[in-house]
From TrEMBL:
Pfam families given in the database record: NifU_N (PF01592)
NCBIfam families: SUF_scaf_2 (TIGR01994)
PANTHER family according to UniProt: IRON-SULFUR CLUSTER ASSEMBLY ENZYME NIFU HOMOLOG (PTHR10093)
Protein name: Fe-S cluster assembly sulfur transfer protein SufU
Classification via CDD domains: IscU_like
Domain NIF system FeS cluster assembly NifU N-terminal: 10-128
Gene3D superfamilies in alphabetical order: 3.90.1010.10
Length: 149
């Protein structure tokens, strides 16, 4: 497949996640929630998740954001449902490295989010791509701190 066709495919996947995001909405019985914003771009995201026995049973996001931010949040929710908190935190770290151009060889666990590796060429967009992931990281760390009290 020619590189331009591959780029078109990647763009289409990003546009699909942006136009028809997965796991968007509210969770009435959320155990943890957080709101983050990206003042550079104006993105705002609220994450709600249900943690049961240290596993992400469900996750939803809402807010407003650019196509990259929304697509990344959609991809992130797909990747982390069913993960333990530690597995999800490892994915957050892996994704952060990926969008900085420092990816490791095992990116398959990121699912569609691996497509966002091209963001590394646009430093201003890295914050858009990582907003939901940073929100998840913060929510999981807060949940762990609450459980350790």
């Amino acid at each position: 497949m020619a590189l331009s066709r591959l780029d078109q495919l990647y763009r289409q996947v990003i546009l699909d996640h942006s136009s028809h995001p997965h796991h968007q909405g509210q969770l009435e019985s959320a155990t943890n929630q957080i709101e983050l914003n990206n003042p550079t771009c104006g993105d705002v995201i609220q994450l709600q998740l249900i943690l049961e026995e240290d596993r992400i049973k469900d996750i939803r996001f809402s807010g407003s954001g650019c196509a990259i931010s929304t697509a990344s949040a959609s991809m992130m929710t797909d990747a982390v449902i069913g993960c333990t908190a530690q597995e999800a935190l490892a994915l957050v770290e892996q994704f952060s490295l990926l969008v900085q151009g420092k990816e490791d060889e095992n990116t398959a666990t990121l699912g569609d989010a691996v497509i966002l590796s091209g963001v590394s060429k646009f430093p201003a967009r890295i914050r858009c791509a990582t907003l939901a992931w940073k929100g998840l990281e913060k929510a999981l760390i807060e949940a762990q701190e609450q459980n350790n009290k």
